[in-house]
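FORM 7B: Structural annotation worksheet

SECTION A. Query
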Amino acid sequence: MMYEDSSQNRLDESLDLFKQDLFEKKLAAGKRFADYHKDYDGPNTYEACTDYLKQLFLKQIRPGGMPCYTHITTATDTNNVEFVFNAIVNIVLEENIRSSGMALAGAGV
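SECTION B. Predicted structure
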């Protein structure tokens, strides 16, 4: 049996399921981000709130670990999804080339 834990902040739990278009609409309609994320004290703008969320996510990455890149996406924006997918493929390929020792000096990989 599954249940909802009312003490768990759903925003914290589902950063990777973030819906950009709905978030923008809610902010524009007057919903205050700080009401849902008590540690936030910045402006109630889309840019400021998403920057805050990116920083929260990046704080979870251990120092010296793999590089992490953040992208705000909309699943219905195929150009955006394609861009992010291609960026991920590029990162994976570069890391594989680097770790295999096949990277040429000065090749930018």
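SECTION C. Observations
Residues 8 and 69 are 26 Å apart (CA to CA). The chain has four helices and no strands.

SECTION D. Sign-off
Analyst initials: ____
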